[in-house]
Amino acid sequence: MDVTYEGTKRELTTDKGVLRYHEAGDPDAPPLLLLHGSGPGVTGWRNYRGNLGFFAQTHRCLVLEFPGFGVSDPWEGMPVLTAGSSVTRFMDALGIESAPMIGNSMGGVVGVNLAIKKPERVAKLVTIGGVGPNLFSPSPSEGLRLLQEFADAPDRDKLVRWLNAMVYDRSLVTDELIEERWEVALNPDALKTARAMYGSASFEMQQQFLAQADIPPYWALMHKISCPTLLTWGRDDRVSPPDMALAPMRLIPDAELHVFPKCGHWVMIEAKQAFEATVAAFLAR
């Protein structure tokens, strides 16, 4: 099975531009969508390249690159909302009515919003950190503050500080990882998206909007999620501290929570084998 970058990359032309994605596994196997997170230099490939070989044994794995992160063409609008629209457009184009989804951080929020608003599209949902409100921990968290600092004035040292906050084991932050993240982080589309999501000015505007709007935050609607949901979390996550998991665990009717020790924000990377085994059992039920 070919799970290399070149062997799995695909393109899909839409009326809003080109969506790029990676596909691995038997085309006739059940589909599995893998939705990436946010942050400097992120791509769907980098989030899930280490997991494709495992999940492609049982599923047709589709790793969508969200608009505005330097790989797919950018779309106008708030990145989390355009990401959700890109998922449904992507599924429609490939003829996928419903599928289980794995979402890392922002990708988990995208999956939650789809499960709330378009429940028929989400068969099962796996989230990796990032979902819910900070209940006991400071907000923004340490990791988000470092992300804010980078978005306001990007430089290499800030990127390294943020990457170190993403993991429990800092040996994972290699020179190679820093270089590849730095290269994509400087992409103009990616910088624009980072400022829109995490820049200090944008963050303040978002907080003011939420305080004045009549629209409830997404996590207040999680009781509407009807699909089986697996919440996965790193016990030592400094971006999305584990207390955030308490609200979705309680509010989502059919939710279960698995916390991985000695693990930061990137559960699928730092607790790779345990994560894969846990998710495979959940998907197989």
From TrEMBL:
SUPFAM superfamilies: alpha/beta-Hydrolases (SSF53474). One of its GO terms (biological process) is acylglycerol catabolic process. This is Putative hydrolase. InterPro entries: AB_hydrolase_1, AB_hydrolase_fold, AB_hydrolase_sf. GO terms for molecular function: monoacylglycerol lipase activity. Keywords: Hydrolase. GO terms for cellular component: membrane. Residues 30-271 form the AB hydrolase-1 domain. Gene3D superfamilies: alpha/beta hydrolase (3.40.50.1820).
